[in-house]
Amino acid sequence: MKNIVKISFLTGVLLFFFGSLQAQTLEDYLQIAAENNPDVKAAYAEFEAAMQEAPQVKSLPDPTLTMTAFGSMVETRLGPQEARFSLMQMFPWFGTLKARENVAGLMAEAKFQAFLNTRNEILLEVSRQYFILYALEQQLQFQQENLEILQSYKDLTLSRVSAGSGALTDVLQADLLRNESVTGLDVLRLKKQAGVVKFNALLNRTATEIVHLPKEILTGAENVIFDTPVSGNPMLTELDRMAASAKAQEILVQKEGFPDIGLGIDYVVVGERMDMAVEDSGRDAIMPMLSISLPVFRGKYKAARKQAAFMAKSYEHRKEGLANQLAAEMEEAIFEVREAQAMLELYKRQVESSEQVLNLLLSSYRNASSNFEEVLRVRQELLKYQLEVAQAEANYLTALARIDYLSGKSIDYDNKD
Question: How far is residue 23's CA from residue 184's CA, in Å, rounded to a whole number?
Answer without folding.
Answer: 30
